[in-house]
Amino acid sequence: MKEIKNKEKQQTAAKKKRLSLKQREGMMGYLFVLPWIIGVLIFVLRPLAQSFNFALSRVKMTPKGREITFIGIQNFTQILQEDETFPTELAAYLVKTVMAVPIIVVFALIIALLLNAKIKGKGVFRLIFFLPVIIASGPVMDQLVSQGAGSIPAMNTSMIQSMISFMPGFIVDAIMGLFENIVMYLWYSGVQILIFLAAVQKIDTSLYEAAKMDGGSTWECFWKITLPTIKPMTLLNVVYTIVYLSNNEQNTIIETIKNAMFGTTGSKGYGYASAMAWLYALIVTLLVIIFAAALALKKDVYAKKAKKFRKEQKKQERLIKKIEKRGEQYEKQKAKRVAKAAKAAR
Amino acid sequence: MKSKKQNALPKQQKQPAKAVAAPKRKIDRYAVKKWFFGSKDTQGVGKLIAIYGLLICIGFVYLYPLLYMISKSLMQRADLLDSSVNWIPSVLYVKNYVDAFTSMNYVKTLWQSVVIVGLPTLLNMVMCAIIGYGFARYDFPLKNVMLGILIFSFIIPPQITMMPNYLLYNDLKILDSIKAFLLPALLGQGIKAQLYILIFFQFFRQIPQALIEAAKIDGCGHFKTFIRIAVPSAAPAILVVFLFSLVWYWNESYLTQLYVCGVLGDSYWNTLMVALKGFNDSYSQAGGSVTGEAMGSLNEGIKMAATMLSILPVLLLYFVLQKQFVESVDRTGITGE
Questions:
Q1: What is the mean pLDDT of residues B229-243?
Q2: Residue of A325, B33, B215, B271 with fewest CB within 10 Å of its CB?
Q3: Do B334 and A126 touch (CB under 8 A)?
Q4: Is residue A202 classed as helix, strand or coil in its secondary structure?
């Protein structure tokens, strides 16, 4: 008995050891990632919870420390009903971003396609187009825009303004802001150009050759090969652009939130500022989701057809199986009947 | 181009031998057309001109602010007001730079910028490499959830987490010092650290498993494998992360001002970007020659000089290491394979 028990023990121990080897690998993984886990807990999840708590309460700074009283959604209603600037700023941001994102992404795509052509001096152009990524920071942009270096001097902005003056005021403002700082918006597309360029260069050239054999023009090739292939990159670029535009220091909302938090004149307390930040985050997230959905919804026609075809195939297979089964049953029954008949005959 | 001409020539020579002048002209037109618009497999001159024209135009638009900045920063006040002087200043006026140099306290600020940017960058690089390796090499429960959180934390606006973090640093008494940048970087939460972790993740995943197993059989521990095998093979990724981290820390002024330099600007630390942000005030404080309303347009040159000075270090870095910068996106596989 004892021996058997010992053996069992040994076996379970061995089992444990084998499991723990796998687990040990996992533990090592945790060890490597541990700093990040702590970081996320301290610098992402905890602040998220805390700022949500702030947004739902009134925070008073007293010499003793923070005094937090829960007031529900009062901060939000106050922002939406009483604040004079924040809702209009949000609306302006929304309009501006919705217009700027397609401009930036399409522009980046055009540049990437131009750079993809067989030309000399590609490196120099890439150097120029990537330059803004290095130097376009908040204060520099502020200085440049305030000096009027952000607009193309030859562009007649007053004519555009008179053309679109029938629209509501904040939309006109947003469009004019876009045109006045068109160079700055083009400056934001440095990374996007490189991402598109890398994607375009990776497209298999035999695809184009095949298309040309079939008589496809360059224009058709672009719409039917290039664009569908780089679709994931487009989504990536759109998301990147939205995130960049919303966290950019040129954005006035960020400054407003900061002023609400620290400013001497516009200070309304941490709670109010947190509510602003959450509202802002909500709108940014919504924008990302809307753009992503708009890009992802339109499924590939061929993928759809292939799916349909596969479905049909499965259906037919099932039918065939059914028929086969019936046939087998029939055979069996027939065999039985024959056997019976044979028995009876006997 | 040459080859096209050569292709076209033999045809021309053949044709006249047969007969008349009229078909010759036709063929000429065809050749010219082909030469200009290009055929299905070659590029015509017209197309090339169009591409170059577009690229040069857009390139000029891209460089326009920079050229504008350089040109204005070298003008004296008379040139700025004179409408006949558009691009090229009448005299190269370096005093703008001297003024900006002194009022920004350039040498000290530059040194502090290098420290404030350099240390978190190094830490960021090291930690992101370790974390990225952990994600790429090992399998453990909840890994996918963690990667999801990683991407999520890249997308959320920093304004939400900014306030609680500010209070945290305040409680820890590390506000207004460089520690407020070092602590998050140490825990893999530096500026855009999520992106760098993803870069390293992509890169370390491409290391063949056999290599790591061979190291294991030869008696390499987990950390030794990381240092001896993973790190040397990830040299391009390390360079990319280092450069981008450097540039983005350099360009960050919002969080730098909030955490390191102090909102009121009374801290010991200062960076060039933050100095540029408050340049208008500091210039008039330092005894700039013109004050009041008229100053805005008048010391345009000095402002541009200050802007130029504050981006000069990264600009130099870019021109020296441009190849690494530009090819970075390709090499790291951000584009996703």
A1: 85
A2: A325
A3: no
A4: coil
Q: Are strands A57-62 and A65-70 parallel, antiparallel or unpaired?
A: antiparallel
Q: What are residue A59's DSSP bridge partners?
A: A68
Complex-level ipTM: 0.74
3-state secondary structure of A123: helix
Of the candidates A140, A87, A107, A131, the residue with the CA atom closest to the CA atom of residue A241: A107
Asked whether the beta carbons of residue A29 and residue B143 sit closer than 8 angstroms, the reply is: yes
Shortest CA distance to B89 belongs to which of B304, B319, B313? B304
> What confidence tens digit (pLDDT) does each residue in B113-160 have?
898 899 999 999 999 999 999 998 888 888 889 988 988 888 787 778
A66 contact residues in B (CB cutoff 8 A): 167
Structure tokens at A228: 């569908």
- For the residues of A275-306, what is the DSSP string, one character each? HHHHHHHHHHHHHHHHHHHHHHHS--HHHHHH
- What is the three-class DSSP state of B276? helix
Which amino acid, one-letter code, is at A225? I
Choose among B309, B97, B99, B117: nearest CA to A135: B309
Lowest mean pLDDT among A17-31, B60-74, B209-223: A17-31
pLDDT digits (tens, 9 = 90+) for A195-221: 888 888 888 889 888 988 888 888 888
User: Any residues with CB less than 8 A from the CB of B165 and at least 6 apart, and which?
Assistant: A43, A47, B184, B259
- For residue A64, pLDDT beyond 70: no
Residues 6 or more apart whose CB falls under 8 angstroms from that of B150 comprise A36, A40, B194, B197, B198
Rg for chain B, CA atoms, rounded:
29
Q: Are the C-beta atoms of residues A67 and A59 closer than 8 Å to each other?
A: yes
Contact A32 B137 (CB under 8 A): yes
Q: Which of A28, A277, A288 lies at the smallest CB-CB distance from B138?
A: A28
Nearest to B158 among A150, A239, A247 (CB): A247
What b/e string do you get for B181-191 counting C-beta neighbours within 10 Å, with b at 16 or more?
bbbbbbbbbbb
**Contact yes or no for A175/A160 (Cβ under 8 A):** yes
- Return d(Cα A138, Cα B311) in angstroms, integer: 12
Number of CB pairs, chain A paired with chain B, less than 8 A apart: 255
**Residue B22 above 90 pLDDT?**
no
8 A C-beta contact, residue B244 and residue B198: no
Above 90 in pLDDT, residue B105? no
Cβ atoms of B251 and B274 within 8 Å: the answer is: no
Q: Which residues of A162-200 are buried (b: 16+ CB within 10 A; e: fewer)?
A: eeeeeeeeeebbbbebbbbbbbbbbbbbbbbbbbbbbbb
pLDDT value at position A285? 86
What pLDDT is attached to residue A312?
A: 92
- Between residues A287 and B39, the one the model is more confident about: A287
Whether the full predicted model's pTM is greater than 0.90, yes or no, is no
Q: Are the C-beta atoms of A97 and A287 separated by less than 8 Å?
A: yes
Q: How many residues does chain B have?
A: 337
Per-residue pLDDT tens over the stretch B169-200: 888 888 878 888 888 888 888 888 888 898 88
The reply to whether A339 touches chain B by the CB within 8 Å rule is no
- Window 214-233 of A, Cβ < 8 Å to B: 232-233
The pLDDT > 90 percentage for chain A reads 7
